[in-house]
Amino acid sequence: MGKELFVRHISARVTETDLRKLFSVAGTVSSVHLVTDPDSGQFKGCAFVRMSSERDTREAIETLDGALLIDRVIEVSEARPQKPQGRPGGGGRGRHGTKGRSGPRRP
User: Fold this and answer.
1) DSSP 8-state code for residue 99
2) Number of domain units in the chain
3) 16 with 10: CB under 8 angstroms?
């Protein structure tokens, strides 16, 4: 099975069909997902493309990284696994690992 690719610097004029056509030069495209802001629905200029095989995935990276798509040069790389989400409701430590305290500890 192929891996998912992450595509950056995509023009706002690009459609899923445009990406599917472009990536089909490297092999069989299983799926295309344009990333949008969950609140506004606005396109964020990046997408995930899944190729049907490892060979097609490698070919897409080698062939299409740096390609011109409409009016932008795109970047194509292997997508990284999604990081696990933290506990619901926050509860995490602050920036300095002090549970919200921002300065040095005072005696």
Assistant:
1) T
2) 1
3) no
